[in-house]
Each structure stands twice: as structure tokens, then as C-alpha cells.
Design goal:
Urease, subunit C, domain 1, 8-stranded parallel beta sheet, 4-stranded mixed beta sheet, 34% helix, binds zinc ion, hydrolase, Amidohydro-rel, iron, zinc
Length: 392
């Protein structure tokens, strides 16, 4: 184990209010961070930094915790360029487009799925993401779903079983039988590789009763619920998430006052907003301001997937959230780091304070505000992941 002091940081976001100013961000100016092995050992003013085995001069850059992307769908074959092109020419997005990817994913080899995942995780890391959840949901048979999750578990800790993404084409005439498969043999095959269970609760996918069956069956096998809720229309997803103690209700685009109230008073259910999706489908953005003002915990995530949001960029999501969803730059940066950690029920990531995992991003900017102020600009200068410089 060797230690590194990263010093001469102009603005450091710790996400620990006890360590600095700026409320939840716990900002430290002219700061240093000591990374020891895969952990953060010390944080504070650069002038007081202890010695370490090596030093890295940040030359006045800002530092933030590695982004925590708590929602993606990266286990797929093919792509949907043609569908995107058509949609941008006026055709609305519906949940059915997923079937195109199901066909291509079933054709893909394990090797191809694994290489795709590696490529996306590397792509995201170059943009500052150091934790990425990902889901199954493009195989829709016990064999296909479990092999996708096995491939995922080799590359990330945060793996989600989502056999209930859409009803498999073979069960189009008998959705109840598909739910029996998802909550029975498919779950048995998948549970060993997953930490989470997820369901797309939406018209055209699974209704409230079906979603409840999927999540409670998963929970009985030791998986923790999360849910695609209220994305395309009002529905029971958010209330179900809060009632079942899901870690996260994702999308939250179409909310009643009662939904907002439920999230604001939820015990551990985060509202995860996925603005890349509304951007890519020309849909109305979720109202982050309404959720924050009510007191809900908000996370931001990419929803990276080939159909409705093919971006792996958390900085892009931060910029949209600020421009279109009423978040302040401070709130958006918190939601993309600490918020994502909450949505994954992790306390070792999403912060830069002693004991945290050594996931640190240096930006070619003096302040984290530039993530929103300079949209589309590749500001990521250097990334430490588990204490190692990415790419090293
Ligand atoms: Zn999703």
C-alpha cells in the first residue's frame, strides 16, 4: 500500500458538511487529500497536509468525489441508431422499442456482452464516474438474464436483476405467465449474481400489481427493490416504491402531490432523476425543484441504454439538471455523487472524507460549478479509482 497526497486543489467537494463550508457539499478551498491504498486517509487545508509516499500537484484544479451512476442498462447487443433517427424525425418513444435490443442481445456472445460493458465502464470513468450500477433486462429468459448478470458481476458490484423490463415477446399473449417466470425460475437463476431487483412499472410494461409481485419475490430472495416509476405517465410506481422501502424510485417525471409527499417522507427511498432520457426522447423533464423543496432526497443518473438515453456522461446530466430542472449547481453535483451513493445505499462512496473509498476526480476548472457552467466540455483531468489513477 502506498499513499499519495493530492495537493493544491482550489475547490474540494467533500460532501461532508463537517469538513467545510457550503452546506452539504462541505467545500474546502486550497485543499489537499491523502489517498492511502484504496481509502481516503486525510482531507484538509493543503498547508496542513501530512507527508505521503508521493505527491500530485493539482495546479489549482477543483476536485469532486467520483460520480456515482446508480442507473444504467449496459448489457445489450446491437444499437438503436435507426430508432433514434426516426424519433428525432417525429415518432414518439414507446416502451416497445426495447424488443429490438432484446433480439440483438440474445444473439450476442458472452464475450461480446462483456466487452461492451468494459467499453462503457471505461468511457464513463474517463468522464469521472467511479461507480456504475447496471441491469439485465434485454434477455428475458432465465438463461439469458442470468448470463448477462454473471457477465456484469465480473465488472461491477452494483448489479440489478430486471427480468421485468418488458414482457418477453414469447409471452405477449400471457403476461401473467411471464410474471410467474420472472418471480420463479428466472429469479432463482439470477439472484446469485444480483444485489437489486427492478421492474418497469408503466403502461405497456408492468402494472402496479405485477410490479409488486416482482419486487416482493425478489426481496424474499434477498434482493433489494428499486423501480422504474412514473416515467411516461402517472402511475402507482412511486407509491409502491415508498411502501416497499425500495432504495430508489427512478425517473419520477409524472408525479402527483401525493407522490411528492410520499418521497419527501420516505424512509430511505431516493428519487432518482434521469435527464438524459427526457433529453433524448424530447420529453418533459422531471421537476427536481418541486422534489427538493418538499424535502425529498434526489439522485442524478444517466440511465445509459441504447434506446432512450445513450449517454454515459454524468457531467452532461448535471448540466441539464441545472439548466432544465431547477437544481442549483451545488445540488446537482451533490445528487450526482452523494445522491447516487444514497440510491445505492452505500456510505463508502460519493464523498471525500476519511475512510471513504479513494475515488477522486480532478477537473480542468477551478470549481465544481463549471460542471454546469461549461456544458459539453471534457473537464475531467484525472481520475483516481480505488486509489489508482484510472488507466494506470
Ligand atoms: Zn432505466
Amino acid at each position: 500500500m502506498t499513499s499519495t497526497v493530492v495537493t493544491n486543489i482550489r475547490t474540494l467537494v467533500t460532501n461532508d458538511p463537517a469538513l467545510g463550508e457550503g452546506g452539504p457539499l462541505g467545500l474546502v478551498h486550497d485543499a489537499a487529500v491523502v489517498l492511502d491504498g484504496d481509502r481516503v486517509a486525510w482531507v484538509g487545508p493543503a498547508a496542513e497536509a501530512p507527508a505521503a509516499d508521493s505527491a500530485h500537484d493539482a495546479e489549482g484544479r477543483a476536485a469532486v468525489p467520483g460520480f456515482v451512476d446508480s442507473h444504467s442498462h449496459l448489457l445489450f447487443g446491437g444499437d438503436r441508431t435507426a430508432e433514434f433517427n426516426a424519433r428525432m424525425s417525429g415518432r414518439p418513444y414507446t416502451a416497445g422499442g426495447i424488443r429490438t435490443t432484446v433480439a440483438a442481445t440474445r444473439e450476442a456472445s458472452d464475450d461480446e456482452l462483456g466487452r461492451n460493458l468494459t467499453r462503457f465502464l471505461d468511457e464513463a470513468r474517463r468522464q469521472g464516474t467511479t461507480t456504475m450500477e447496471t441491469k439485465s433486462g434485454y434477455g428475458l429468459t432465465p438463461e439469458q438474464e442470468s448470463r448477462a448478470l454473471r457477465v456484469a458481476a465480473e465488472q461491477t458490484d452494483e448489479v440489478t436483476y430486471m427480468g421485468a423490463h418488458i414482457v418477453a415477446p414469447e409471452y405477449a399473449d400471457d403476461p401473467a405467465a411471464y410474471v410467474d417466470l420472472v418471480t420463479g425460475p428466472m429469479l432463482d437463476a439470477c439472484a446469485p449474481y444480483a444485489r437489486w431487483v427492478d421492474v418497469f412499472c408503466e403502461k405497456g410494461a408492468f402494472d402496479g400489481d405485477q410490479a409488486r409481485a416482482v419486487l416482493t419475490a425478489g426481496r424474499a430472495k434477498g434482493l433489494i427493490p428499486r423501480i422504474h416509476a412514473n416515467q411516461l405517465s402517472h402511475g402507482p410506481g412511486v407509491q409502491l416504491a415508498v411502501e416497499l422501502g425500495a432504495a430508489s424510485a427512478d425517473h419520477c417525471t409524472h408525479l402527483t402531490d401525493a407522490d411528492v409527499d410520499a418521497l419527501a417522507h420516505a424512509d430511505g427511498t431516493v428519487a432518482t432523476l434521469l435527464p438524459g432520457c427526457e433529453f433524448s426522447t424530447r420529453a418533459v423533464y422531471p421537476d427536481a425543484r418541486r422534489l427538493l423543496d418538499a424535502g425529498a432526497t434526489v439522485a442524478l443518473s444517466t440511465d445509459c441504454n441504447p434506446g432512450s438515453s445513450f449517454t454515459s456522461s454524468m457531467p452532461f446530466c448535471v448540466a441539464i439538471a441545472v439548466r432544465e430542472m431547477g437544481m442549483t449547481p451545488d445540488e446537482a453535483v451533490w445528487s450526482a455523487t452523494a445522491g447516487g451513493a444514497r440510491a445505492l445505499r452505500r456510505d463508502d462512496i460519493g464523498r471525500l472524507s476519511p475512510g471513504a473509498r479513494a475515488d477522486l476526480v480532478l477537473m480542468d476548472a477551478p470549481s465544481h460549478v463549471h460542471l454546469a457552467y461549461r456544458p459539453g466540455v471534457p473537464l475531467t483531468s484525472r481520475v483516481w479509482h480505488r486509489g489508482r489513477p484510472a488507466g494506470a
